[in-house]
Specification:
329 residues; alpha+beta; Arc Repressor Mutant, subunit A; BirA Bifunctional Protein, domain 2; SH3 type barrels; 3 domains; 7-stranded mixed β-sheet; 14 strands; binds adenosine-5'-triphosphate; binds biotin
Length: 329
């Protein structure tokens, strides 16, 4: 019922309780109850006396039917779900992992109320404008086998965006999708959050969360403490359903290859798309900082820095990579 009501509202126009009730064959009182549920889910509804309710703007909702028409690989998952509002798609997949040890699952959401980045940082997830999804993917060889996974996922997204005509997408080690070049150079387009559960030395399950900005508006930027941009702002105007279907297809393809062969076959392509290659950077470690020139990743997906003491490789962990600005070092 929630979905049916939000579909009426998706055009961004005002709809009266009476009209919506007539459209759905239910009473105005029942519509009122549903609207309250949507508001309780933090879905942004405007109401004006005498006019009715509307969403702040027209939106293209995600629908399984539309995803499938666009080639979404439902057959690869034991379940594919779309939620209107959720705390975090990663949280959902982590709880699905508690009872499903060997299946693959996917959940997509129109919004997240507690979307997360690395180290618990907030991921801004407004309603029906961007993509937020998580995949639960079992791995049989334990934690060691997933080294480089966030890089492989980034590459899948980069391939998909390129295929859909979005130019100038670069990768930032270990988990960011950035704009590489042009006026929005360096702005963050998306991020990847990988979490693990199960037996770290044997069969474990990996939750792969992807947030991809399609439409970042001025009001969003006040809530993000770095440069961010959406595909729309880069000139792309691609259907959310088509975009999601294409990305998930590329992701499944990369994950299947990665499960069998690890990161090594993807190393070259990742390095070709490295937004920081050859740049002077600093790596912020928990209790120190190291400066060097970005020298791409090795076959394990470790970041290589050319430092004063020679070439050094670093694992993705509690580390952050930043470009060194002029006069800094
Ligand atoms: P690091 O290099 O340490 O990973 P990061 O800045 O990329 O640094 P993450 O934890 O990967 O940090 O990402 C979370 C950060 O992303 C938040 O601190 C916030 O500044 C930013 N952020 C939150 N929502 C969005 C969004 N929708 N688009 C772009 N950036 C966002
Ligand atoms: C980052 O750049 O730190 C990673 C951001 C990952 C955000 C996605 S949105 C879908 C999934 N659910 C979450 O809570 N986080 C990831």
């Amino acid at each position: 019922m929630n979905h049916a009501l939000i579909e009426i509202l998706a055009d961004g126009q005002f709809h009266s309780g009476e009209d919506m009730g007539a459209g759905l064959g239910i009473s105005r009182a029942a519509i009122w109850k549903q609207l309250q549920k949507l508001e309780a889910m933090n879905i942004p509804l405007h109401s004006v006396k005498g006019k009715g309710y509307r969403l702040p703007e027209a939106v293209e909702l995600l629908k399984l039917e539309s995803l499938q028409k666009a080639g979404f690989p439902s057959g690869k998952f034991a379940s594919s779900k779309i939620e209107l509002s959720i705390d975090s798609t990663n949280n959902r997949m982590m709880s699905v992992a508690e009872t499903n040890v060997s299946d693959r699952h996917i959940v997509l959401a129109e919004m997240q109320t507690a979307g997360r980045g690395r180290r618990g940082r907030q991921w801004l997830s407004p309603f029906a404008r961007n993509l937020y999804f998580s995949v639960l993917w079992p791995f049989s060889q334990g934690i060691a086998a997933i080294q480089g996974l966030s890089l492989a996922v980034g590459l899948a997204i980069q391939r998909s965006l390129k295929e859909q005509g979005v130019q100038g997408v670069g990768l930032k080690w270990p988990n960011d999708i950035l704009v590489n070049g042009g006026v929005a150079n360096g702005a963050k387009l998306g991020g990847i959050l990988i979490e693990l559960t199960g037996d770290m030395s044997d069969a474990c399950q990996v939750v792969i969360g992807v947030g991809l900005n399609l439409d970042i508006q001025a009001k969003d930027l006040t809530q993000i403490d770095q440069q961010a941009v959406g595909v729309k702002q880069l000139g792309g105007n691609i259907s959310r359903n088509a975009m999601a279907a294409n990305i998930v297809n590329h992701l499944c393809e990369v994950l299947e290859q990665f499960s069998a062969q690890g990161f090594a076959p993807l190393q070259q392509e990742w390095n070709d798309n490295d937004a920081f290659r050859g740049k002077k950077v600093k790596l912020i470690l928990p209790s120190s900082e190291i400066q060097g020139i970005c020298a791409g990743v090795n076959e394990k997906g470790e970041l290589q820095l050319q430092t004063d003491e020679g070439l050094k490789a670093f694992n993705a962990g509690e580390v952050s990579l930043r470009v060194v600005t002029e006069g800094e070092g």
